[in-house]
């Protein structure tokens, strides 16, 4: 009768330091991929989006959505400022390529139809346009129209400058929630 060995093959264990380093590298790589391609946190600076967003609030920005579709009127987007691409701005899209934008008595009209504003928009008294939005770009306005540097001043925003869609406020904790667009029913 043959004997069967009771010995098990030796399992080579990694040192705890090596396991920790491997876990940290994987976590950093995973965080880098998420931040670069999926979602990133941005801090609002200034008052151009007041009352929708306030200075120092933090928002989540979906960086993936515009790989699937183009920006739509009502979207709140983060983009590289056309005059200084190292700076990021946040504004609301009111018109897309081919649309004609005009402001009369503080009201925004796109293709002759009054733009459905959310209730948090502060209107301005100024007039603007008409202005036809060129191909591969969008026209953006701040929700605080009297205190906003937007497409009325720097022109259209090329699609390639758009970083993503702001979809939720995450700071301060008392204000956590989704950001609405006129298409979602929060109309004035």
From TrEMBL:
CDD domains on file: S26_SPase_I
Residue span(s) of domain Peptidase S26: 18-171
SUPFAM superfamilies reported in the protein's UniProt record: LexA/Signal peptidase (SSF51306)
Short name of any one Pfam family annotated for the protein: Peptidase_S26
Catalytic activity annotation: Cleavage of hydrophobic, N-terminal signal or leader sequences from secreted and periplasmic proteins
GO molecular function terms noted in the UniProt entry: signal peptidase activity
Broad EC category: hydrolase
Cellular location(s): Cell membrane; Membrane
Assigned EC number: 3.4.21.89
Listed transmembrane segments: 20-38
UniProt entry keywords in alphabetical sequence: Hydrolase, Membrane, Protease, Transmembrane, Transmembrane helix
Membrane topology: Single-pass type II membrane protein
Family to which the UniProt record says this protein belongs: Belongs to the peptidase S26 family.
PANTHER family xrefs: CHLOROPLAST PROCESSING PEPTIDASE, SIGNAL PEPTIDASE I
Protein name as it appears in the record: Signal peptidase I
Native organism: Symbiobacterium terraclitae
Lineage of the species this protein comes from: Bacteria, Bacillati, Bacillota, Clostridia, Eubacteriales
């Amino acid at each position: 009768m043959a004997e069967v060995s009771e010995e098990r093959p030796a399992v080579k264990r990694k040192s705890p330091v090596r396991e920790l380093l491997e876990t940290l590298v994987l976590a950093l790589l995973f965080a880098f991929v998420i931040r670069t391609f999926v979602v990133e946190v941005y801090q609002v600076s200034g008052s151009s989006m007041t009352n929708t967003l306030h200075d120092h609030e933090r928002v989540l920005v979906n960086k993936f959505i515009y790989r699937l579709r183009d920006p739509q009127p009502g979207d709140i987007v983060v983009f590289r400022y056309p005059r200084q691409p190292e700076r990021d701005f946040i504004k609301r899209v009111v018109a897309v390529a081919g649309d004609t934008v005009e402001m009369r008595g503080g009201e925004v009209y796109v293709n002759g139809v009054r733009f459905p504003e959310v209730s948090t928009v502060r209107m301005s008294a100024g007039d603007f346009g008409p202005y036809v939005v060129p191909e591969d770009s969008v026209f953006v306005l701040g929700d605080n129209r009297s205190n906003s540097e937007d497409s009325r001043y720097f022109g259209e925003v090329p699609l390639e400058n758009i970083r993503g869609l702001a979809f939720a406020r995450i700071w301060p904790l008392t204000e956590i929630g989704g950001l609405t667009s006129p298409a979602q029913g929060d109309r004035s």
